[in-house]
Amino acid sequence: MYNPFPLLNEKILADKIQEGKQFFVRQIYSRGLQKGIRASFLLRAYDSTEKALAMEHLSRIQSDPNAFLYDVTNPAHLEKLHIAAKQPFGFKIYYAGKKGVDWDPPAVYQEHMKRYIRKMHPDWRTKKGGDKIEIGLYEEYGSLFINLSYAGEEEKIPFGEIEKY
């Protein structure tokens, strides 16, 4: 299963904290599972003014027994984040960085998207010098979405939907 997010590391963690990210939501991340791994997690960061958003994210994943809200101002939480950034044995911890339209999908996913567009939007035809179909990858509360837009039309679909085409 394709996973577009990078593994969390000390540099990403330090950069996010320096940018003012205070809250990190942890959740199970099935796209990151690999053979021989006990668990895979996704961390999403929110800055100090976004505590309500972090709490909303947490409330949306309350069925996840591993969901947790870290606050970097709590020394114990910060230490656990540093441990996570070192990728402890048996675990993979990913960082939910937003990709947007700069995302360059692998060739197989480009084909999935072409088939999806042909089937679901057959009237979206590009011409040289005309409107282009824009495709962006976005993360929202730990879930991945593809945003398709063309000539004023827009569609947001769960990432897994593309894999069916």
Helix and strand layout, with pairings?
Layout (H helix, E strand, L loop, with lengths): L9 H9 L2 E8 L10 E9 L3 H10 L7 E4 L3 H11 L5 E5 L11 H14 L13 E7 L2 E8 L2 E6 H4 L3
Parallel strand pairs: 2-4
Antiparallel strand pairs: 1-2, 1-3, 5-6, 6-7
Order of helices and strands: HEEHEHEHEEEH
Indicate the proportion of strand residues.
Answer: 25-35%
Output the structural class. Answer: alpha+beta
Radius of gyration, taken over Cα atoms and rounded to an integer in Å: 18 Å
Average pLDDT score:
92
Largest sheet strand order: 3-1-2-4
The total strand number stands at 7
Shape: elongated
Low confidence ranges: none
Q: In whole angstroms, how far apart are the ends?
A: 14 Å
Q: Tell me roughly what share of residues is in helical segments.
A: 25-40%
Q: Quaternary status of these chains? A: single chain
Supply the number of structural domains: 2
Tell me about the biggest sheet?
Answer: 4 strands, mixed
Number of helices: 5
Provide an overview of this structure.
Strand 5 and strand 6 form a beta hairpin. The chain has 165 residues and is α+β, with helices and mostly antiparallel strands. The chain folds into two domains: 10-95, no CATH class; 107-162. The protein has helices at 10-18, 51-60, 75-85, 107-120, 159-162, and strands at 21-28, 39-47, 68-71, 91-95, 134-140, 143-150, 153-158.
Short structural description:
By secondary structure, the chain is of the alpha+beta class. It has helices at 10-18, 51-60, 75-85, 107-120, 159-162, and strands spanning 21-28, 39-47, 68-71, 91-95, 134-140, 143-150, 153-158.
